[in-house]
């Protein structure tokens, strides 16, 4: 684990490369997998390198209550057992969802949150976290 004071960036779990530039210097770091940015004393995992990716993806984690609702909707739509693990990292396919199940999940999310998800956007939703993040983004636009 490495930290950069002043820029307030914590780096954990090494497996790729990154060059960070602060106001005063440039720092090269190899084998980077994720970066955490503290905001107001709370740390949020905001940057992550996907396996096989050559660039970072910046994402805003959804509120815990949004993620919980999405998990509940996914569990109900797929009729999963109460002890089945459903969390942000859960992929719809790994939970046994086919394309029709995914459409039904998106429809359930639209109804629950009062949003409308465009078809091409819906096709990019792969995990519970993807759905929760999209919901937050759409609710922000409302």
From TrEMBL:
Keyword Metal-binding assigned: no
Function description: Carrier of the growing fatty acid chain in fatty acid biosynthesis.
Protein name as catalogued: Acyl carrier protein
Superkingdom of origin organism: Eukaryota
Cellular compartments annotated: Plastid, Chloroplast
Keyword Oxidoreductase found: no
Family designation: Belongs to the acyl carrier protein (ACP) family.
Keywords: Chloroplast, Fatty acid biosynthesis, Fatty acid metabolism, Lipid biosynthesis, Lipid metabolism, Phosphopantetheine, Phosphoprotein, Plastid, Transit peptide
Alphabetized Gene3D superfamilies for the sequence: ACP-like
Organism of provenance: Hevea brasiliensis
Family annotation (InterPro entries): ACP, ACP-like_sf, ACP_chloroplastic, PP-bd_ACP, Ppantetheine_attach_site
Chief location category: plastid
The Carrier domain, residue ranges: 64-139
Stored NCBIfam families: acyl_carrier
Pfam families, sorted: PP-binding
PROSITE patterns given in the database record: CARRIER (PS50075), PHOSPHOPANTETHEINE (PS00012)
